[in-house]
Amino acid sequence: MLITKLKSSNELDEFFSKKLFVFKCFGCSEVYFPEEEINNFASGKQEKISGIAQIDYLCNEDFAKRYIEKNVDRIHNCEGIIVFSCGVGVQVVARLLENKAVYPGCNTFYLNGFQGLTVLECDCGQCGQCYLNHTGGICPITSCAKGLLNGPCGGAKNKKCEVHPEVDCGWISIYERLKKINEGSTLKKKGVLIRNFEKIIKGI
Ligand code: SF4
Ligand code: SF4
């Protein structure tokens, strides 16, 4: 089951201040996926869209790679990518297009059980307030052992997490990715992020 909701129009308008390429993933649309709202919103932003790719199961890296190859010129000409999918799909696109800013069009509330072809390298903690636009497309909930939202704990050694020394520190990865997309100063500018735990859906 998948439950995602479109982000607020204020947030989306801010993303669309740039010319964006759009990925829409309707592969898990069985439950609570705002397909109609996404299409309506995108139709009102035509002049800010360099191209659109609709794909089932964006979480499958091989599928996603093929769509990127097909749209390479349009992607090259855009200033960023917006992805309407669960948090996993957004992260897959960010991994494949490491020099492009990637923005989540939706907040993911729930994706347990069957949900397409999820790769193991990316995970979404279903927080209901997607932060991937602030963190270079790397989830701070699942890539940091402490789920920190505002930067590293300071315990990393040789870029490895102090809780799980065999795993890269999520916040060092976030910082390195932000530098690649020239948004290294984003963390300083954005103010403090606060997590609203009431948005987490439990026990469905
Ligand atoms: S920030 Fe992470 S946990 Fe929250 S919706 Fe985005 S990918 Fe999922
Ligand atoms: S070392 Fe990095 S990944 Fe580990 S808890 Fe601290 S900030 Fe999070």
Topology:
Layout: E1 3-6, H1 9-15, E2 20-25, H2 35-43, E3 49-55, H3 61-70, H4 72-76, E4 80-84, H5 87-96, E5 102-104, E6 106-110, H6 140-143, H7 170-180, H8 186-189
Parallel strand pairs: 2-3, 2-4, 4-5
Antiparallel strand pairs: 1-6
The chain binds iron/sulfur cluster (2 copies).
One iron/sulfur cluster binds at residues 87, 104, 107-108, 124-127, 130-132, 139, 141-142.
Description of the structure:
- By secondary structure, this protein is of the alpha/beta class.
- The chain has a domain at 3-130 and 191-199: Rossmann fold (3-Layer(aba) Sandwich).
- It is built from eight helices and six strands; from the N terminus they run βαβαβααβαββααα.
- A four-stranded parallel sheet has the order 3-2-4-5, covered by helices on one side.
- Strand 4 (80-84), helix 5 and strand 5 form a beta-alpha-beta unit.
- The longest helix is centred in the C-terminal third of the chain and has 11 residues, at 170-180.
- It starts with a strand and ends in a 15-residue tail after the last helix.
- Bound molecules: iron/sulfur cluster (2 copies).
- Residues 87, 104, 107-108, 124-127, 130-132, 139, 141-142 line the site of one iron/sulfur cluster.
Kindly summarize this structure in a few lines.
The protein has helices at 9-15, 35-43, 61-70, 72-76, 87-96, 140-143, 170-180, 186-189; strands spanning 3-6, 20-25, 49-55, 80-84, 102-104, 106-110.
